[in-house]
Amino acid sequence: MTTRKLTLFALLLVAVLAMAGCAAPAAPAPSAEGQPEQAPQEAAAPAAAEPVTLKWFLRWDQNRLDNVAAPVIEAFQAAHPNVTIELENIGKSSDYYTKLQTTIAGGTPPDVFYPATHIAYALASKGAILPVQDFIERDGIDTSQYEKAILDLYTLDGKVYCLPIDSAALVVFYNKKMFDEAGIPYPQEGWTWDDFLAIAQQLTKDTDGDGQIDQFGVDQFRNYWPMVVWSNTGHGLFDDIRHPTKFLGNDPEVIASIQWVADLMTKYNVMPTDEQRADISDLFAAQKAAMQVVGHWRVPRYLGSEGLEFDFAPLPIGKFGEPVNRA
Question: Same domain for 204 and 296?
């Protein structure tokens, strides 16, 4: 069964470290006949490598900055003492990509950054980034350590432009206590979006009888509507994400899938609107929503939420009939 890959966040390597070579010591000159051989002069010390500063531009949460980026920088600088890594992080995607485009247009781009597939394709097609294929071959990087389907997502016209650093697959987190109290079995692999909606409806409650919803079936995940589209149609909005020739967004099933996500808020009332969420950034963490569709980066938050007992399940299956996820 083939798992469709919608998008992948990867580490883009676009810089080459120029290291100064080390000269070998010269052989001692032969002595003149009858004269004592002179001691060879001490070999000159190897030339110091030229200082290099690399800008690493990320959009991670603090947990990954502390536990992934910081150790990587420390280890790399220890191995290459002439290299200084300058890290800049912008957590919000829209702000991140705005600044990335601005720096590229201004001729001051970062050396290493973190693009989604469609961003990488756009930049590569404009010649704004370099392929890393030659560097992979030069340095003997074993690409078999990467899942082929994931590495292929960053291959354009036969050349690799990015090396993956992590993945962003989604799951459905669920509140075990809410499920138990409602007598609802935990979600299992193979459940459908119809099952998802039915469960969300059972878990949406007005607990104090004031006419306002106090517990939602699922917190907002409307930004992930492409995943629902793909699970129902087997495709995204274009026929080919690398070299699109046809727009598929007017497909009736695409429109119906997007409408279904909106209906979770406006028709079924199982997912909160912005007004209903008020100033709560994560209703699942606040234990005001029974489910949440999101990725691994929320686990530290949920582990730190007092009294929250949770687990997670695979994404539901749509009309396409096969599991679909982001990578």
Answer: yes
Rg for the chain, CA atoms, rounded: 27
Which pLDDT value is given to residue 117?
82
- Structural domain boundaries enclosing 300: 170-325
Pair (235, 114) in one structural domain: no
φ and ψ at residue 230, rounded to 5 degrees: -65, -40
Do the bridges between strand 83-89 and strand 52-58 make them parallel or antiparallel, or are there none, so unpaired?
Answer: parallel
pLDDT at 32: 41
Mean pLDDT, the chain, as a whole number? 85
Q: How many domains does the chain have?
A: 2
| Higher-confidence position of 285 and 154 | 285
Residue 202 and residue 153 share a domain = no
Contacts of 319 (CB under 8 A, 6+ apart): 231, 232, 233, 253
- Does the residue 30 lie in any domain? no
